[in-house]
Amino acid sequence: MKTIAFKKIYTKIERITKATCTLRADGVGYEEMASVNGRLAQVVKIQGDLITLQIFSGTEGIPTNAEVIFLGHAPKLLVSDELCGRFFNAYGHPIDGGAEIDGKVVEIGGPSVNPVRRKQPSELIATGIAGIDLNNTLVTGQKIPFFADPDQPFNQVMAMVALRAKADQIILGGMGLTNDDYLFFKNIFENAGVLDRITSFVNTTEDPPVERLLVPDMALTAAEYFAVEQNKNVLVLLTDMTLYADALSIVSNRMDQIPSKDSMPGSLYSDLARLYEKAVQFPEGGSITIIAVTTLSGGDITHAIPDNTGYITEGQLFLRKDTDIGKVIIDPFRSLSRLKQLVIGTKTREDHPQVMNASIRLYADAANAKTKLENGFDLSDYDERTLKFAEKYSEQLLAIDINIDIDEMLNTAWQLLNSHFSVAEIGIKAELVEEYGKRNGN
Questions:
Q1: For the chain, where do the domains classified as CATH 2.40.30.20 start and end?
Q2: Which residue from 3, 46, 287, 361 puts its CA 20 to 30 A from 112's CA?
Q3: Is 165 left (phi over 0), alpha (psi -120 to 50) or beta?
């Protein structure tokens, strides 16, 4: 060991795995950054004076006498208004060809907001996607995942939400994006002219997988700057949290930790909760809302990643392909926003709750009619009408490409209800039928 420019340089590594190295050092903090033969690394385990570092770009070619310098700080991000409209890598360095930004240095991965500084979420955040706003309305300060199969267009949905959401600032955290997906996000934001309110942190498939662990913290640190210092409503979009969890697993396995369910680390729940709990509504007006994609392995909702996610978050949005219309829809049966009751009927039109409930009930009747048909039973006139209603409902309201405001969604739902059912079959309060149903065709 020698000292240069007031930094100790260690030159004796005791153990090297594919993602980590271990050495003896003193005065080192957890999550502190380090340089190992010029490669960035981070402290992930401290046992007495035995320090384990995860090396983001891997350990291939690193000798046991490599120079290790501890940098004295956790990963940092420069925050300022210059973040707007820019694309950064997992370390917060620009990847869009623009200049380095000026700003205040903030350590990433800080604690979540103290409960006494939180306000109960109560403000509507509209996405413009009918399958969300009508049946699974989101609230500022909410945390909710998209569950989707890997072959579904979840990144296109996230881009739509970024373009349409009624938020002051959008932060995108992309983990394991293909170059096509990265260019898709970049082009669609530029072409839509909304770059000034979007900041992106991107790790692609060509980057080391372990770097994905920094992306959510970078995104959430930027979100905290806009929400706390500028009182903005910030929407954070994270995709794909399954690849984030896979990176956690890589580091855990290389450290010889005993894996938990589905080869995931035993700390998976707290690792995910630490990120999702950054969602908050501040009394002063700013907020952080988190929508995250979690891809499913073979559609398995019981896998450790979606299973733990479901316990932490306030509902889920479920994408599936509707074979009747050939489009991807927001599945009304498997999707749920646990906070929607805080805004529907108060921040939205008074008929919203009853129109939503009546539509889903009749959509469920259509599912029962389809089961009868598949089992060779005769269908009643009512069954036939529910099937026609369900197809139109999926096509005009549940499909992810529907972009209308909430009042228009409600009017469309009324028109579909009135076209296929009697007032008695719809089962909505007479005063609401009188006020809204008649104006839409009843």
A1: 2-70
A2: 46
A3: beta
